[in-house]
Design brief:
Elements lengths: L6 E5 L1 H5 L4 H9 L5 E5 L5 H13 L3 H22 L2 H28 L4 H8 L1 H16 L4 E4 L6 E2 L10 H12 L6 E5 L2 E4 L4 E3 L4 H13 L3 E6 L20 E3 H9 L7 H10 L2 E6 L8 E4 L11 E15 L8 H11 L6 E4 L5 E7 L3 H11 L1 H6 L2 E3 L3 E10 L9 H11 L6 E4 L5 E7 L3 H11 L5 E8 L3 H21 L1 E10 L2 E4 L9 H10 L11 H5 L4 E5 L6 H11 L2 E4 L9 H13 L4 E2 L10 H10 L4 E7 L2 H11 L4 H10 L8 H4 L2 H13 L10 E2 L13 H7 L4 H13 L2 E10 L6 E10 L11 E8 L7 E6 L3 H20 L3
Parallel strand pairs: 1-2, 1-8, 2-5, 3-5, 4-6, 8-10, 9-11, 19-20, 19-22, 22-23, 23-24, 26-28
Antiparallel strand pairs: 6-7, 10-11, 12-14, 12-15, 12-16, 13-14, 16-18, 17-18, 20-21, 25-27, 25-29, 27-28, 29-30
Helix pairs in contact: 3-4, 3-5, 4-5, 4-7, 5-7, 9-11, 10-11, 12-13, 15-16, 17-29, 20-21, 23-24
The chain binds 1,4-dihydronicotinamide adenine dinucleotide (NAI) and ligand LTNE7NMQ.
Pfam families: AA_kinase, ACT_9, Homoserine_dh, NAD_binding_3
Catalytic activity: L-homoserine + NAD(+) = L-aspartate 4-semialdehyde + NADH + H(+); L-aspartate + ATP = 4-phospho-L-aspartate + ADP; L-homoserine + NADP(+) = L-aspartate 4-semialdehyde + NADPH + H(+)
Subunit structure: Homotetramer.
């Protein structure tokens, strides 16, 4: 009879009781390997209805009790009809009458006495599993499977703790040997959840009781595995309602599963795991609706990847109660007394923390037990509270306990660091923290409204899924539009190869912001935003959206506008805990105090402010300069052609293109500022020079820049971009003549900037220059820019950064790189 090859399948209520699923259950059993035992739960909500009907009878409402019993009967009849032929249905009707008639009698008795003892309740609720066995065994027989109905009460011997009975292993084993002797060549279909006392009273095994029966049977049969067929794909890496990317965990060790069970997963109970750990059978969780998916396997080996934790759990609706001492070294340590008092009051404690010298102690308990817990603690510590030596802190509620579980966590450094860093980077306040000695889990308590962000952030930070970056984009013009395309193109690869996903939450233009907390599709965002503007459905005040953005994982405001006044939005973003990535130079070129205030605010709130594209588009100009400065190099001069537009104009002029035509083309190519006057006035280059000079630590403003415009001042008054470009035709002949004359002298027109720190004060100049062929700027083509850093270390040969200095695609790539830097900072080392 006993054989290594036995397997146990357990089907839960959802698999049996959801119409349409039962045929799948039957197929799974029919196609299973030989030597299979099947354990079934009650169909759907049958157990709950049976409890309700007992309670209704107890309160004297027998007609209500009958209605509730009728519900159970109706479900049983409905599902039986889906899998049984005519004779089978007739036979099942007989079974059902036999099972339910005693229940009706019990209900009448309860109504008369107005009392339903735990023993009677067990008799009533035990019928759910018996109904399942009757249907499944009959339906399998009709399918040609040699199935036999087995009532587990015939071998599961328990004590008389009704509602949560304990199994007597020895007596059960002895009875099982007799019962199972008849199973040869058949598939036993066994009731889960129920047993019988030595003196013949029906008992139930408590929460997850059917799983327990399955593991018990597996142990008795020395089975190799128990497969629990349910309605999910397996143990998920996080609650899918909180983390869309959560997926099934492939492997778990028994200990990890136990840890999960202790931290509140409803999928299995410690009682289910412990017997399996003893007998060495694996527990496999699989989906009845997607049986081809491998599910989660729990065994002695567990997760083979030592670098990866398994999942993040979140236990919600909790309260955190803290007790503080005003003295160090209380004569009677408080922790043990608090726990004893809570234990006596029947309050479940999910987590405790104690400061090293015992001056503060906190407990995390169910929110619903807050009053009871406070009262028991107050009573236990009454003496010290009265003398003022101890104080109960205001209760924090509701809070959530977020736990990272992983077998190997204690064997690797920096798990706690990454856990806390990711939560801190998301701007979440950790209210309490605990890592157990088993080092299989680390838990923290956060405010309830931060639950989703905390779980998603930790989930992403440990590569359980992608790190999600939540983007609100302002500006969908040349740069913003290209950025949307690049995100759309790259997101799959970013997810697959870098574990990062960018999620677009909002897009804004001067017409307003379209924002959707559920995300916008990157390929449709431009049109959606446009229609929203036309329909008046956009939000005008972007600041009002920052609170919502801040609640999402790794929030970032991306400014691809050229709008003035954005500094107010950035300040509000930092205050809310939102990061900023910007291609907009204006906030950085504000008067020194304002610019410093902006950077200071970002630092104060530990937010990132990345702006690499404000000088030289995606060329690594700012990062290079920062590195020179950080490593202690001394910058002597920074010189370069900072404008892609002016570089392009110079190149075109040298080729004989009229100025007005070249400006129009530069605009069409996406090189110019929204108003090309900002380029031709030299203002754009002056802003860049100020940005770089300030990176050097120089204190100066735009007004300190010696600026000579590219075209005469008199042409720079026109506010309308079209009129402005039109007016430039008046300059075409004069400019062409000047360029021809300089070419005759072997010179080329360029527009250069120079920053010289100098002991006597910094000098910053920008303006047109005629260079000869030996000058580095002479070699520039098209919209190329270059920046040469002459430093102590790079005295002989300057460090030169050179390449396209303007254009939608390159700039958007630089903005995207800045966004992705946020993910690197969050994830840290793998
Ligand atoms: N085009 C380029 O090669 C480079 C541009 N930049 C900077 O990138 C920014 C965008 O440049 P482009 O895309 O070329 O300009 P663009 O004119 O094509 O796009 C600007 C966008 O900003 C939007 N906008 C204006 N006011 C707004 C507001 N208050 N809120 C939200 N959106 C608003 C406009 O509706 C438009 O969609 C500018 O600050 C520019 O200096 C930086 C490096 C290179
Ligand atoms: N208009 C600017 C765009 C980049 O900053 C330029 O031409 O350089």
């Amino acid at each position: 009879m006993m054989s290594e090859t036995w397997q146990v399948y357990k089907f839960g209520g959802s698999s049996i009781g959801t119409p349409g699923r039962l045929p799948k259950v039957l197929d799974l059993v029919a196609s299973a390997p030989k030597s299979l035992a099947v354990v079934v739960s009650a169909p759907g909500d049958t157990t709950d209805w049976l409890i309700l009907c007992a309670r209704s009878a107890e309160s004297g409402n027998i007609s209500q009790a009958r209605r509730e019993l009728g519900q159970a009967k109706e479900l049983a009849t409905t599902i039986a009809r889906t899998v049984l032929g005519g004779p089978g249905q007739k036979g099942f009707k007989y079974d059902l009458d036999e099972i339910l008639t005693p229940v009706e009698r019990l209900l009448s008795g309860i109504e008369l006495t107005r009392e339903c003892s735990p023993r009677t309740l067990d008799s009533i609720i035990s019928v759910g599993e018996r109904i399942s066995v009757a249907i499944v065994s009959r339906a399998l027989s009709e399918k040609g499977v040699n199935a036999i109905a087995v009532d587990a009460r015939d071998f599961v011997v328990t004590d008389a703790t009704h509602g949560a009975a304990t199994v007597d292993k020895n007596e059960t084993s002895a009875k099982f040997a007799t019962v199972s002797a008849k199973w040869g060549g058949t598939v036993p279909i066994i009731t889960g959840f129920i047993g019988r006392t030595r003196d013949g009273h029906t008992t139930t095994l408590g929460r997850n009781g059917s799983d327990y029966t399955a593991t018990l049977v597996a142990g008795l049969l020395k089975a190799s595995a128990v497969t629990v067929w349910t309605d999910v794909l397996g143990v998920m890496t996080a609650d899918p309602a909180l983390v869309r990317e959560a997926g099934p965990v492939d492997r778990l060790s028994y200990d990890e599963a136990l840890e999960l069970a202790y931290f509140g997963t409803r999928m299995f109970h410690p009682r289910t795991i412990i017997p399996l750990r003893e007998c060495g059978a694996a527990l496999v969780i699989r989906s009845t609706t997607q049986p081809e998916a491998p599910g989660t396997r729990i065994d002695a080996t567990g997760n083979p990847d030592p670098n990866r934790p398994t999942c993040v759990t979140s236990l919600e609706r909790l309260a955190l109660i803290g007790v503080q001492s005003r003295r160090t070294g209380l004569s009677k340590p408080v922790g043990g007394r608090i726990l004893a008092a809570l234990g006596e009051a029947g309050v479940r404690v999910w987590m405790t923390t104690e400061s090293t010298l015992g001056q503060s102690f906190s407990v995390v308990i169910p929110e619903t037990d807050e009053q009871k817990a406070k009262q028991s603690i107050a009573e236990a510590l009454v003496a010290e509270i009265q003398t003022g030596d101890l104080r109960i802190e205001p209760v924090l509620s509701p809070v959530t306990m977020v736990t990272l579980v992983g077998e190997n966590m204690g064997r690797r450094p920096n798990v706690a660091g990454r856990f806390l860093n990711s939560i801190g980077s998301a701007g979440i306040n950790v209210r309490a923290l605990a890592q157990g000695a088993s080092a299989r889990s680390i838990s923290c308590v956060v405010d309830a409204d931060q639950t989703a962000t905390a779980v998603r952030t930790v989930h992403g930070a440990f590569n359980l899924s992608h790190t999600e970056i939540s983007v609100l984009l302002l500006g969908k013009g040349v740069v913003g539009g290209s950025l949307l395309k690049q995100i759309d193109q790259q997101n799959k690869t970013l997810g697959r190869e870098h574990d990062v996903q960018i999620r677009l939450l909002g897009v804004g233009s001067s017409g307003g912001v379209l924002f959707d907390e559920h995300g916008l599709s990157t390929d449709k965002a431009v049109e959606l935003q446009k229609s929203a503007v036309e329909e008046g459905k956009t939000v005008k005040d972007v600041i009002s959206l920052l609170g919502k953005l801040a609640r999402l994982p790794n929030p970032v405001l991306v400014d691809c506008s050229a709008a003035p006044g954005m500094e107010k939005v950035y300040l509000a973003a930092f205050d809310h805990g939102v990061n900023v990535v910007s291609a907009n130079k204006q906030p950085l070129a504000l008067p020194q105090a304002q610019r410093d205030g902006l950077l200071g605010q970002a630092r104060k709130h530990f937010r990132a402010y990345h702006y690499e594209t404000t000088v030289g588009a995606a060329l690594p100009v700012i990062e290079t300069l920062k590195n020179l400065v950080r490593t202690g190099d001394h910058v002597i001069t920074i010189e370069g052609a900072f404008s892609g537009t002016l570089g392009y104009l110079c190149d075109q002029l040298a080729k004989g293109t009229p100025l007005s035509v070249a400006v129009r083309t530069a605009r069409e190519l996406g090189y110019t500022e929204p108003h090309p006057r900002d380029d031709l006035s030299g203002l754009d280059v002056a802003r860049k020079a100020v940005i770089l000079a300030r990176e050097l630590g120089l204190r100066l403003d735009l007004t300190d820049v010696g600026l000579k415009p590219f075209v005469p001042e008199s042409f720079l008054k026109e506010d309308d971009p079209e009129q402005f470009m039109q007016s430039l035709t008046q300059l075409d002949a004069e400019v062409a003549a000047r360029v021809t004359a300089s070419k005759g002298q072997g010179k080329l027109p360029r527009y250069l900037a120079r920053i010289t720190p100098g002991a006597a004060g910094a000098k910053v100049t920008v303006g047109p220059v005629e260079v000869d062929s030996s000058h580095p700027a002479a070699a520039l083509r098209g919209a190329e820019a270059f920046v040469a850093f002459h430093t102590e270390r790079y005295k002989e040969y300057p460090m030169v950064v050179r390449g396209a200095g303007a254009g939608g695609a390159v700039t958007a790539a630089g903005v995207l790189a800045d966004i992705l830097r946020l993910a690197q900072n969050i994830r840290g080392r793998g």
